[in-house]
Amino acid sequence: MESCFYSPKAKKTSANPNFFGKPSRSKERGFTKRLKGKWPILILILLSFLTRFWHLESPSQVVFDEVHFGKFVSAYFTHKYYFDIHPPLGKLVIAGFAKIAGFKADFDFSHIGENFDSGSLFGLRFLPALFGSIFVVLIYFLILSLGGSKKAAFFGSFLVLFDNAFLVESKFILLDIFLMFFGFLSLYLFIIAKEKENNSKKQIILYLISAISVALGFSVKWTAFSFLGLIFILIFLDYLRNFKFKPFLAKGLIFTIVPLFVYLSVFAIHFKLLDQSGPGDAFMSPAFQKTLKGNSIGANVKPLSFIAKFAELNLQMYTSSANLKASHPDGSTWYEWPLGKKPIWYWTQSKDNLKANIYLIGNPVIWWFVIVSIPVIILNLSDKRLSRKTIFWIYILLLGFFANILPFVFMKRVVFLYHYLISLVFGILILTLFIDKDFQIPKEKEEKPYKIKKCSEKGKEIKRRDFFTFPSKGSFFLYFGYLTIVFLVFILLLPLSYGIFLPEKINNFYSSFIKFLH
């Protein structure tokens, strides 16, 4: 006998009177209808903004790489040239909003733990928190675009919402949340564009915005080039499916010309704002320095053109990154990341026999489940319950998962746990799509294929994809039981994400756990 566990409301018939004996109002029905099925995404939106913005100005001290990125953001106010191994967009957008928020660039960012007293900390940390909040919602809609159900979309975005590593990356003046947002946004836009009518205005606009988004991603960090690679693979696979050359060429040109134009434009703004000699001069050639006001280069040196400056800076960024020799106690290797090894110590402070710490640490219930699931999923892609569309996207996502780890296998410079976060998102997407089948009622050949008539003796019917409709009590408790454990572990690790002051005994517990992961 099939289960009717947590089935939806009864059929509307004349024998089913209003509960209170009063006629319902049309406005109330309209409002309820608009909210129907929307509560999962509304909960995600509320909790994502709450977790990312709560205590945003705490600690009011410099945390981890804020010591670098804070300096770079300030440089756009002083116009003194700086050098960084990453493209400038992340720092540019933070500086832009900080300007609106009233930041005066009167702070040194000299060391981790330095007290921040300029009153503009909220403005500096606002955009990472905003993008981190929206990123949770983006994952929800991305899963839907991949063919997942609302249960799957809620499941995957819930894991991103309550992973402590994503939370920490969203609360400080850091860049990775920007590149993840723009990268996965470009993938989402490309997927929904594919579903539109070929060569329609909507499709072309979506492809253009997707191309802009992927360019914004690798204008933050080059790691986002992996998304452009995935998109080109999808374009080529579309060509192999129908052998239509003109659409293939058009999409290829869009995702070549538009990203190049955006990337060049970002550097044009960068050079325009940094027009004075500064601490970054030492990394550049005399001809490059000649373009900066207040330089000490002789009159016989000819200044570089914009394109020449662009080429030299990008080459220097690559060379400097490849030649980094510095070590770090929390540096890690790529094969340690899936297990969450080597959490990164971001900040610490002691007062009144209490101590607070901030670590970049993953939620182990998520990280361990994802990495254990990947080989199991690969071996079970022949499961007949998986649709061809789901199998296709799992293969693409697996490609994204491994493509974002592979460069770090050969990288000799020190790397960190946060370099795994893009692959972790791909892993969450893979896991979510694969297990979606286990929480859906199987299709039956009836007159209404998306509604399965059950519990007819009770006068009820079940919709296959209703959020609370599960094939059995067991699947219901597995779904919400796992999410409950994820949430509880998130809460357990919360003091290490927000820097909450704790007594020595409790700190010893957390220290033991950190040592275990090291």
Automatic annotation (TrEMBL):
The answer to whether UniProt assigns keyword Transmembrane helix to this entry is yes
State which residue ranges cross the membrane: 39-56, 126-144, 151-167, 173-192, 225-240, 252-271, 358-379, 391-410, 416-435, 476-501
Q: Which InterPro entries match?
A: ArnT-like_N (IPR003342), PMT-like (IPR027005), PMT_4TMC (IPR032421)
The question of whether Membrane is a record keyword is answered with yes
Residue segments, region Disordered: 1-27
**Topology within the bilayer:** Multi-pass membrane protein
Instruction: Write out the GO MF terms.
Output: dolichyl-phosphate-mannose-protein mannosyltransferase activity
Q: Which ranges form a coiled coil?
A: none
Q: What is its EC number?
A: 2.4.1.-
According to the entry, every stretch annotated as the ArnT-like N-terminal domain falls at 43-274
Protein O-mannosyl-transferase C-terminal four TM domain residues are: 306-503
Keyword annotations of the record = Cell membrane, Glycosyltransferase, Membrane, Transferase, Transmembrane, Transmembrane helix
Give, as in the UniProt entry, the pathway in which the protein acts: Protein modification; protein glycosylation
What's a GO cellular component annotated to this UniProt protein?
endomembrane system
The subcellular localization recorded is: Cell membrane; Endomembrane system
Where's it mainly located?
membrane
Protein family (similarity comment): Belongs to the glycosyltransferase 39 family.
Looking up PANTHER family in the UniProt record yields: DOLICHYL-PHOSPHATE-MANNOSE--PROTEIN MANNOSYLTRANSFERASE
Biological function: Protein O-mannosyltransferase that catalyzes the transfer of a single mannose residue from a polyprenol phospho-mannosyl lipidic donor to the hydroxyl group of selected serine and threonine residues in acceptor proteins.
What is the name of this protein?
Answer: Polyprenol-phosphate-mannose--protein mannosyltransferase
